[in-house]
Amino acid sequence: MVKKQAPKKNPSKKDKQTSSADPIPPVDPQILIHQQRILKLFSDAFNPVLSSEDFTARLQSIKQALFNREFDTAFGTEENLQAYAARWSPTRALCYSSIFQTIAHHFDEMALTSPPPTNNDDYDENSPDAASIETSDSKPRKSIKMLCIGGCAAEQIAFASLLHQTNSSGHLTLLDAAPWTQVVALLQNHIASPPLLSKYASAAIKAANTPLLEQAQLETTFSQGDILALDKEALSSLLGREPLTVTLMFTLNELYTNGGIGKTTKFLKLLGEVMPDGSMLLVVDSPGSYSEAAVGKEQKKYPMQWLLDHTLIDPRAPSPGYEWEKIESHDSIWFRLPDGLSYPIQLENMRYQMHLYQRKSTSPTQ
For domain 89-115+136-361, which CATH number applies: 1.10.10.10, 3.40.50.150, 3.40.50.980, 3.40.50.2000? Predict the structure, then answer.
C-alpha cells in the first residue's frame, strides 16, 4: 500500500557542508513571481489549519505516527491531511514544477490538441471582430495527460503549474491509499479561482487578478486505493489508451519497502505491458542511502535505482513486445528555495534523484 512519509530532514554532515558552500543560482524574476503565486495558493487554501493553535502539535503527532509507521493514524482525519499538505507539499510542489519544466519538451512529443475554451457564450467566431482579433486563448491548446501514483497535493499543484506555464490543458489522475478527496477538491477550487487579495488592493491589482487556470483547463480525478493490488485490467483502465506520463514521486522506495520487492517488481512489469506506446515513467525519490530496499533473509540492501533499472532495462531479461529507454537520469539534485519567497511557516530545501523512462513497442502489431 502506498503511504507517504514526511521528507527526510537530516542529511549527513557532508551533505550539509556541500549544500551550504554552493551558492543559490540567480532566479528569473518571472519564475520567482510564479513560485510565490504557488505558495500563496497553498497559504490561501490551508489558511485555517496554518493559523490554528494546534498546528505545531498536530505536525508533531503526524511525524510521530509516520515514524511508528501508523499510517491510518497519520492520515486518518481531514485535519491531519490538510496539515500534512500545508507543511510538506509547498516545497515539493515547487520542486516538481521545476522538474516538469525541465522535461516539458518530452511532454510535447505525447501531447494531443484540445479545442479552445468556450467560456464566452456570446462569442461568435464568424463575427467581424472575431476575425480581426486572435488571442492565445482562442487557439487550440496542447493536452497533457498524467497519472501520479502515491501523490496528491504537491503533484496536483505542480501539474497545474506546468499547464499554466505552457498554456496547455490537461487531465490528471491521482492515486493514493490515503483519503485525499476533499483536499483535491479544495485545491482544485483554488487553482480555478483568483487569489485572495487584501481589501486595500489597488484597482489595477484587482483587475489583473486572475486564476492560475481556467475552470475547464484542468480535469482532475482522485482514486483511493493500493496500486499493488490492481490487476492487469484495472491498471489498463486507469492508464487509458492515450500516451501519458506516470509518476512515482517519493513513492517507489516506499513500495519496495512496504509492499515488497516481489510485488513492486510485478507491478512495474505489468505497467510496461499495459502502458500506451510512447508513454513515460518519471521516478523521483530521496537520493543515495535514503532509498534502499532489503532483500532476503540476510536483508541485503540494494539501491532503489539499481532495482528499477534491473527490472526495466536489464538486457538479460528483455520484455516481450516492448522495451524501456532511459532518457534522463540524475543521482542527486538539489532544489533550493530562492530568496524572496514568503510562506507562513519556514520551508526547507530538498535533494532528490530523478529518472525518466519511455516505453517503446518492439512488436509490429502495436
Answer: 3.40.50.150
